[in-house]
Amino acid sequence: MRSFIIAGALALGLAALPVTAAEAGSTWRVTAKAGTHQVVVGKKVLISGHVRPGSAAAGTKLAVQEKFRPGVKWKTTPTTTKVTKSGAYRVKVKPTKAFTHQYRIVMPATAHHAKGVSPTVKIAVYAWSPLSSHPQNNNNDMGAVSVDINGKRYDNSVRQFGSSGSVEYNVDHVCTQVRATFGLSD
Q1: Which has the closest alpha carbon to 155: 186, 132, 137?
Q2: What pLDDT score was predicted for residue 19?
Q3: Alpha-carbon distances, residue 172 vs 135, 167, 169, 175, 176 (angstroms)
């Protein structure tokens, strides 16, 4: 009989523990949308969205988090932005490495709302590289050299040495565009 009374008193004591305001309120709802899903290294990308409830979020600083390798933890970037009166935000990010970057926006917890995190936005980031810097396959009378065309020097060029030739380059399925200049060397 005595153990029942102790258990009852313990249960009443736990029920009386205070709950923080963030735990009692709702979680911030954060959206995120990228202006583009492909970009070249060093170019800026606009990420925009809303925080709800917007009027309660107005003026609050949002954090931008980034992940650009699978398995690594989210890293908070130095880039921040503030929520407008309508609950909107806009922030520009500038990826510096060629890889698929993931971004998310974090609204910190306040007295009345728990922390909110946007869905992940993925951006494929590409970088220009000379074709001759990639591995060659099936090289037949062609090679990478520097050539002059109309007095202008073109490094990392591919030149034919015999009467006919061919070469293949392995770009690992990451080439979406090719820029080239064609001509006869001086």
Answers
A1: 132
A2: 43
A3: 10, 16, 9, 8, 11
Nearest residue to 125 via CA among 176, 77, 78: 176
Block means of pLDDT (10 residues each) for the chain, length 186 residues? 46 43 72 95 96 92 91 92 95 91 96 95 89 79 83 84 79 76 73
DSSP 8-state code for residue 133: G
Q: Print burial letters for 77-93: b (CB count within 10 Å at least 16), e (below 16).
A: eebebebeeebebebeb
Determine the pLDDT at residue 120: 96
Spatial CB neighbours of 133, under 8 Å, sequence gap ≥ 6: 156
Taking the C-alpha atoms of residue 91 and residue 186, their distance in angstroms, rounded to an integer, is: 49
Q: Phi/psi of residue 58, each to 5°?
A: -50, 130
Structure tokens at 103: 């971004």
Q: Which residues contact 61 (CB under 8 A, 6 or more apart)?
A: 80, 81, 82, 108
